[in-house]
Amino acid sequence: MAVLDVGILLNEKSEELKLELVAGKNGLNKKITVADISRPGLAFSGYFEHFPYERTQVIGISEYTYLNSLDYGQQLKMLHKIFSHPNATCCILTRGLEPTKAMFEELESLQIPLIKTSLNSSSLISDLIYYFDGKLAPTIKIHGVLINVYGLGVLIMGHAGIGKSECALELVKRGHMLVADDMVNIKKMSGRTLLGSGLEITKHLIEVRGVGIIDVKSLFGIGSILDESHIEYVIKLEEWDKVKKTERVGMDELYTEILGVNVPEIIVPVGPGRNLAVLVETATLNQRLKNKGYFTAKELSARLQKAISQKNGNE
Predict the structure, then answer these.
(1) Beta carbons of 198 and 180 less than 8 angstroms apart
(2) Of 88-102, 144-158, 272-286, the least confident
(3) Which cofactors go with this protein (predicted)?
(4) CA distance 93 to 121
(5) How far apart are CA 156 and CA 259, in angstroms?
(6) How confident is residue 249, by pLDDT bands cut at 50, 70 and 90?
(7) Residue 135, annotated ligand binder?
(8) Per-residue confidence (pLDDT) for residue 242, from 0 to 100
(9) CA separation (Å) from 126 to 4, 7, 131?
């Protein structure tokens, strides 16, 4: 399970989210394990049923106003009950609110990082959830090439030497954008979407056998690369096999599972004379049509059924 130290959150997002550590410096190694956020308004009123202690607690103007209406002793009691839990992580005050005396003392005593920001609660929460999603998402590394073709993230897979990188190079020359070559780092984001990127060390590079390593960004310009892309389509390249039965019409819908998400897939036989880049472009456009509800093979099948019915009716 992925975890994130509160200290890393501060190091990476302090400037963007205007975060400032107020108290609890000794708790910067607290572990954030979930992307969800909690606003502890109900807990301040004494209702703790199903309270998510493990979430990052965000205190906005309404929670702050209610807490401030309690006397010092009641504030200490509520804060202690929330933040003394072993899974408690940190507390963030929004709108530039200053911590109450009880808040400062109790969180400092419990070594829970108390952070404040000038952002409002809605802006902070949406940005935090997106950031946590990226950091805590399940990940996997897959051999392949990820390229954005006509706005669709296409993962090209196949065994070594079958021509994935050469196909990607031709696609880049035709105006499409490279995300990763050889190794693709894939994250499962919320909403069951897959986000792919390359490894930092091989970012924007392609290895072409016989030519060597190519820097795509330097050769073809900034418009030829993307840092990351959704993965919405998988194309598997296979050696041409005369004996093996190959899909001719495209009626069957295939899927490949990545991190529990089913992604549409096709298998393309590779043989002499086949232009892989054109095949990938065409398959991608066809998949976009399917995503819009137009399935060419099913349309043909319906036409054939209609023609057969009319013929039988005339006999």
Answers:
(1) yes
(2) 272-286
(3) Mg(2+)
(4) 8
(5) 17
(6) low
(7) no
(8) 64
(9) 18, 20, 9
* Co-location of 219 and 251 in the same domain: yes
Evaluate if residue 244 carries a pLDDT over 90.
Answer: no
Residue 118 marked in a binding site:
no
Catalytic residues: 143, 164, 182, 248
Q: Are residues 143 and 250 in the same domain?
A: yes
Q: Evaluate whether residue 244 is within a structural domain.
A: yes
Where among 136, 160, 176 does a domain terminate?
136
* Segment among 114-123, 140-149, 207-216, 226-235 with least mean pLDDT: 207-216
Q: Are residues 113 and 195 in the same domain?
A: no
- pLDDT tens, residue by residue, 158-172: 998 899 999 999 999
Written in H, E and C, the secondary structure of 91-117 is: EEECCCCCCCHHHHHHHHHHCCCEEEE
161 labelled ligand-binding: yes
Kindly report the CATH number assigned to the domain that includes residue 251.
Answer: 3.40.50.300
Q: Are residues 28 and 160 in the same domain?
A: no
310 occurs within a structural domain: no
Alpha carbon distance 148, 261 (integer Å): 19
Q: What range defines the domain where residue 254 resides?
A: 139-300
In whole angstroms, give the CA distance from residue 225 to residue 205. Answer: 10
Q: Are 57 and 158 in a shared domain? A: no
Say what the pLDDT of residue 315 is: 66
% of the chain beyond a pLDDT of 90: 77
